[in-house]
Amino acid sequence: MESPERVELPAAFEDVDVDVLVQLIADMMERLMAHNDQIPLSPESLTRFHSRVPPGISVLDYLRRIVRFTKAERSCLLITLHYIDQISARMPIFVLSSLTCHRFVIAAIAVSSKCLCDTFCSNSVYAKVGGIPVGELNVLEREFLRMIDWQLTCTREVLQEYYVNLVRTYSTGLYVINDALSSSGISSDSDMDYDGDATSSPAASPAPPDPHPHPHPGRGSSASPAAPRREPSTILIDTATLAPEAPQPPTLEQNMAFAALQQHQQHQHPQHVVDMDTDAAGP
Q: Is the pTM of this model over 0.70?
């Protein structure tokens, strides 16, 4: 059977069709989730982004819904991947999984839109589109800003690098960028620089993300040698300028939420969230 003809994409992420960009981002997130879902949950790993069960809408459809109703810009979509890397480096206990992805995405896009765009929606709109109460989105937004330490910008080159790597590692191999034009070193003298601080840029030539990620060396492993522990995987990680938070024991709040999660999984109730402040349903 002949493989489908590959589709050539624009060299710059600003010119790619938004729905194609959404497909690329969703594909990467789905692979991260498939890997990270195999990591056992623990009380200290629970965050305000956790649901008790995976939401009933795929990440692809969720992103398309957000784009349709909020007109999210390409930079706001791409920088979500940068946020994943930065938070995962600062807080290694956090992973993007099927329980955290949807809330993380809507919070990230709401925050990035306010930071990068001249016009953006109100939190009531983002909450309605994301399928959560506005009060819960407010809590997620504050928690997101705390986790990323208010580091919300990056250079245009960083976003371009994510775009190129997304195309190169797309699961079906459908898309391709002309190699002569796809360098992430495209001139930075344009108005598309999102932050002049070059220290926030990843390494000059990072390896493309592995579509089948493996555990990172040097982190904890399972007590059983026959069952090595899987570790969270991210996309482009540069920890040189980051100061990871020291591991903390679970709080009372986390222990209570973890107990509620276990009880829910045992009884298989209809979907609700593990929300530490509200009882609102997830997206």
A: no
